[in-house]
Design goal:
- With 658 residues, this protein is α+β, with helices and mostly antiparallel strands.
- The protein has 14 helices and 33 strands.
- The protein is 20% helix and 23% strand.
- A ten-stranded mixed sheet has the order 9-8-7-6-10-3-13-14-4-15. Strands 21, 23, 24, 26, 27, 29 and 30 form a seven-stranded mixed sheet that branches.
Length: 658
Amino acid sequence: MKHLPKTAASLRRRLPVVALAKTGAVLLIFALSVLPTPAAKPKMGQTSRLPNVILIITDDQGYGDLSVHGNPVLKTPHMDRLHGESVRFTDFHVAPMCSPTRGQLMTGIDAMRNGCTAVCQGRSMMHSDLPTMADFFADSGYATGHFGKWHLGDSYPHRPQDRGFQETIHHRAWGITSLADYWQNTYFDPVLEHNGVDKPYKGYCTDIFFAESMKWIDRQQAAGKPFFLYLATNTPHVPNVCPNQYSAPYKGQHEGKPVPDTFYGMIANLDENLGKLEAFLYWKGLRDNTLLIFMSDNGTQSSQAQAIHNAGMRAKKTSVYEGGHRVPCFVRWPDGKLKHGNDVAELTQVQDLLPTLIELCGLDTAAKSTAFNGTSLAGLLKGGGAKLPDRKLVIQYRTSGAPWDPAVVLWRKWRLVAGKQLYHVGDDPGQTTDVAANHPEVVQAMAAHYDAWHAEAKPLFDRPRWITIGSEKAPSSILYAQDWTGDYCDNRGGLTQARAKGYWNVIVDRAGIYELELRRWPRESEKALTEGFNGPNDTSPSARPITAANLQISGANYTLDAKPGSTRVSFRVKLPAGKTQLATHLLDSDDRTLCSAIYVYSKRIPKDDAELTPSSNRKPKASAPAPRPLRKRGKNKSAAAFPKRILPAFIRTPATFR
């Protein structure tokens, strides 16, 4: 196998070409593809004195996945330059997975308190009564735009357009190829949701999100409005896919270790897009009065990248060890007179960013709760000897909410993992030596803080998150399996197996007649209920013998047979307004539950004389047995192992996304 070039210069020659231009004492990097014609001149800034804000959050890029942080292989010149021009928080922490981080970012409140602690199973939605970062900006006169990943709910009132964003272009759920995403979507020419409507776009996903962001900024500048842009890329999350020109320089090995070429390629593409955005801001005269934050949502997702360079930290994404939750965070605002070019080593967290932006931008907080768990970092950003209070932070996520499941307490450089293991990352950044026995007083203080924190947070964790159907703002809606309470089911592996079960907590906004359409496959697939992944002739376990469907809602029970070859079973029922549970069962010929409906399409029927589905005493009898394993030439295949022609490798293992 060909080895990577050893010198930075040799690798740089294989990277996309950039042009360098000096303006005064500042060296700016411009991607050639966005440079204006020679006759063009930078526009002067907009009339508003309010700072614009751009918050860029990448997906699954670890602290060590930047060349400026010592990565010996990956080259990120634009990120490196931004690092040099920014205030850098070097002990900055998030949750070990994406949704909890994003919920904490949007609310300034701990995941256990805001309700969003996991990536699915009804736990990827924030409590709807909490104001978001976008709400604060919108109510302060800002244009608010979101481009890329959301992963905080895909049904009303949890979508980005319901949570303060006036413009949004995004994929659903955790990423392109997730269960809720458009059927058979890919990173190239994807279908994306634009303000609630699915639309096709041309190009590579990251390029699209950056290009659409710049178009939106252009419109806000023309209108003279300050803007808040939340640019949340879905890369470098799996599946590892990028144009070959970005991955090709990284094929090979480094010191005998395989290089994750497509993972690094996705970051190289991100870096190039950051350069294009920087050039755009300069030529529009927006750079100096734009507060730009760059961060990621958790540790690296790549075991190969972790092996090459993890900045000396232990573990990666999903872990409560340092490598799972310590991430880069750069802040730059030239007109803000921040302490640019300096590191801030104090313990900080993603919950700090909302109160920081409220203070720096003077956002209107009237009639909104500001009971944040984060603390403003404005004083640290401006320098002048400001210090944060001595504080202990708690990171806890996932679905159980039980004590220490999983959790870590952070205090100065101490880390108490699982309530038992104690590390001092100042002396032992790799967390190799448990020193709990040597410092019982530290363990006791940190454990006592956790106990008090958990006693306060657990009742808030236990509050249900509700999806609303039938509102005037969203008379039609889709309920997805990843948002139900029940079994893990948020990727195409779960969709194809069709064995998971769950129910949705729903609020019926207005009493009336509702049509509830139960499906195993998404509507746009046009696939029959019984069909396997590969179509009508697919005899693998992905073909499910669905003959009937059962609906339970508002204390009533309904069961209908499925017509042969049908794609759905539809119910028309009269519902009272209020809170209820919506449970579904797709049944076999013995009325045993195969799975729950993975998609439910809800629509309020305006007329009162619509024919209703009669209630029924026919209920599911039990769970159907698991599909038999596939057999080929007398050899067994695991019931859980679908053929490669049915499921690509990246969606065969649910743990990949946990």
